[in-house]
């Protein structure tokens, strides 16, 4: 076994494979399909136990259902603790900020995020589970965001979208150093916001009004979605899914808005034509996302495509029937549409199962 070449996700998958194999062997022996000798069973159990211990020691993976439950609780506690400490820091700054002179304020704003950044790096190197390093990293990011915004107020610097690019770069650095998906999400959103603000500025609007043109997010969403295809995220647990799902949200939400309010589009067409165009694009692209997710076995992409396909469908139902149709019939039709979708998915699933059995 080459432990150093595995990611944490790969190690956890290997543990799950071992447990599934052991359960299947027990079932085969119980059904008298096959049986191995006592000596072979002893050798196999010994090998698996040693392998599980090594994986647990090197990667800090969960080798039992109890440890999985505890790990989930630790992750939730870590995230809540990080959010609470970042909020506490925010209010601490504003509570006593007026009593501190300017040089001390600047020193605090510069030193605090640097020290927390170094602390998070140190903890990431020494700690296996990265729980404490993620807390330090999130608090460091909160300090850094406060740093730029408050330095701007102290020195009367004109607000600029470039701050989002700097916050994004710092969040990317922390996310990859501490393997933190929450920080990666913040980095992606900040980066996309920066591109959208720049596109809005180049089109002639004030940068802070970038949200008035939802199409500003279409280009960033494409860049973010394709990024894991060119830069491997295998060493980081769940990063590729965060990229794809965030990109899909940034793609489908503007399309959903434009499919109902076409007059805020950049396109110089009639509003009804724009709305119809985005409605068709929404259905086609969400269906394509479902197909791509099934084909590539990207569960998060499939689920996100499903959610937005249903949102586009129900939005049209609302437009067509909500005003004049009795509500009980309206919701009955929604239920029927859900049953129809269930039948379609069941048929596709059966087709895949038959293909798998034939191969």
Automatic annotation (TrEMBL):
The residue ranges crossing the membrane are 76-97, 103-123, 135-155, 183-205, 243-261, 273-294, 306-322, 328-345
Q: What organism does this protein naturally occur in?
A: Shewanella piezotolerans (strain WP3 / JCM 13877)
* Native organism taxonomy: Bacteria, Pseudomonadati, Pseudomonadota, Gammaproteobacteria, Alteromonadales
What InterPro entries has UniProt attached to this entry? Answer: DUF2157 (IPR018677)
Question: Origin, by domain of life?
Answer: Bacteria
> DUF2157 domain location, by residue?
53-183
Pfam families assigned: DUF2157
What's the protein here called? DUF2157 domain-containing protein
Q: Does the keyword RNA-binding apply?
A: no
* Keywords carried by this UniProt record: Membrane, Transmembrane, Transmembrane helix
């Amino acid at each position: 076994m080459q432990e150093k070449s595995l990611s944490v996700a790969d190690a956890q998958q290997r543990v799950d494979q071992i447990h599934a194999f052991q359960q299947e062997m027990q079932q085969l022996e119980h059904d008298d399909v096959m049986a191995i000798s006592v000596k072979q069973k002893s050798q196999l159990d010994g090998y698996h136990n040693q392998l599980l211990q090594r994986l647990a020691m090197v990667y800090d993976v969960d080798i039992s259902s109890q440890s999985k439950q505890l790990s989930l609780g630790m992750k939730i506690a870590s995230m809540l603790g990080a959010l609470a400490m970042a909020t506490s820091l925010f209010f601490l700054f504003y509570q006593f900020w007026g009593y501190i002179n300017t040089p001390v304020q600047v020193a605090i704003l510069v030193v605090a995020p640097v020290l927390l950044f170094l602390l998070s790096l140190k903890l990431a190197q020494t700690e296996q589970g990265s729980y404490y390093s993620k807390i330090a990293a999130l608090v460091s990011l909160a300090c850094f965001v406060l740093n730029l915004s408050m330095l701007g107020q102290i020195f009367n610097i004109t607000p600029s979208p470039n701050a989002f690019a700097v916050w994004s770069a710092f969040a990317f650095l922390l996310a990859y150093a501490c393997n933190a998906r929450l920080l990666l999400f913040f980095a992606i959103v900040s980066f996309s916001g920066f591109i959208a603000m720049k596109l809005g500025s180049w089109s002639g609007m004030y940068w802070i009004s970038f949200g008035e043109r939802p199409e500003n997010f279409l280009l960033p969403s494409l860049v973010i979605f394709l990024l894991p295809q060119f830069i491997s995220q295998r060493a980081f647990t769940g990063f590729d899914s965060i990229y794809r799902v965030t990109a899909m949200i940034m793609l489908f939400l503007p399309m959903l808005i434009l499919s109902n309010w076409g007059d805020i589009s950049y396109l110089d067409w009639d509003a009804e034509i724009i709305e119809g165009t985005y409605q068709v694009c929404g259905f086609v692209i969400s269906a394509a996302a479902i197909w791509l997710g099934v084909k590539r076995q990207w569960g998060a992409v499939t689920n996100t495509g499903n959610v937005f396909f249903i949102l586009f469908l129900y939005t049209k139902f609302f437009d067509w029937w909500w005003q004049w149709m009795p509500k009980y019939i309206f919701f009955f039709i929604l239920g029927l549409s859900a049953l129809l979708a269930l039948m379609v998915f069941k048929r596709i699933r059966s087709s895949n199962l038959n293909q798998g059995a034939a191969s």
